[in-house]
Specification:
Blueprint (H helix, E strand, L loop, with lengths): L11 H6 L3 H25 L8 H10 L1 H14 L8 H7 L20 H16 L22 E4 L11 H4 E6 L11 E6 L5 E5 L3 E4 L7 H11 L27
Length: about 260
């Protein structure tokens, strides 16, 4: 998957306090271009009755899942008064954090007809769900309550570059760190990627939670056994990219 421009996670006011207005401005302009691309794609691919299946796919290929998701979530927040969007889309996109910025968010709210835009949102959700990423539904307990050490954790999509938007790249074995304890004083979690053997330091908030053991693929269970036995693991060839069990998650991008 391609590398996309960084998505700035804060409002213009916060960017000013952090002296990061240039980063905010660059990201904001890409948000606007993404909004315009969605409108153009809908205009091109809606024949008056049906929207082509490839409509959302083309925009995602250009701007990435995270930005398209943010633009759609922002649109629903700006147009929360409009009853023509489905309850399913409101719930799904409602899980995405949109920086509160009433003076600027309207600029990247999509202006296509709500009924057709709702269909675009449906197609986007289907595309994202086909990635088979792990979500809260596949975890043992909420991040706020779970003990991490010795568990296989799912990295939140919001913490991953989109080139690593695969279930295997989400799975990391927690070896230690103050952030493993839900009541700990620190944030650090030291973990090993089951697919590559790479070790890294993460923050506790980068994870969704510990994955239910019965949902782990066989290759991941084999890697965990080696780690628990004190062995080093090597990169492995993943046999498939099959979706995980359970309902597909929304894009939790809470910062």
């Amino acid at each position: 998957m391609a590398k996309f421009p960084d998505l700035y996670p804060y409002s213009a006011a916060e960017a000013g306090r952090f002296k990061e207005l240039d980063q905010w401005r660059q990201s904001h302009m890409v948000n606007i271009r993404c909004k315009e691309a969605i409108e153009k794609a809908i205009s091109r691919d809606f024949d008056g009755m049906y929207l082509k299946d490839s409509c959302a796919k083309d925009v995602v290929a250009e701007f990435g899942y995270k930005r398209v998701n943010l633009v759609l979530a922002n649109t629903l927040k700006v147009k929360e008064y409009d009853g023509r969007f489905s309850a399913t889309n409101r719930e799904w996109f409602g899980k995405t954090f949109v920086p509160p910025d009433k003076d600027h968010n309207y600029a990247f709210a999509v202006d296509s007809h709500p009924a057709v835009l709702d269909g675009f949102m449906d197609e986007f959700r289907k595309l994202y769900q086909k990635l088979g990423l792990f979500g809260a539904e596949q975890c043992e307990a909420p991040r706020e309550e779970a003990e991490f050490e010795g568990k296989v954790l799912a990295v939140s999509p919001s913490a991953l570059d989109e080139e690593y938007f695969t279930p295997q790249d989400q799975l990391w074995y927690a070896k230690g760190g103050f952030g493993c304890n839900p009541r700990g004083s620190g944030r650090a979690v030291f973990a090993t990627c089951l697919a590559t053997g790479e070790s890294a330091r993460w923050n506790r908030t980068d994870f969704i939670g510990p994955v239910k053991e019965e949902l782990l693929p066989d290759w991941a269970k084999a890697q965990v056994e080696k780690l628990r036995a004190g062995e080093q693991i090597s990169p492995i060839e993943i046999p498939t990219n099959a979706p995980v069990e359970g309902p597909a998650p929304g894009m939790d991008q809470t910062m």
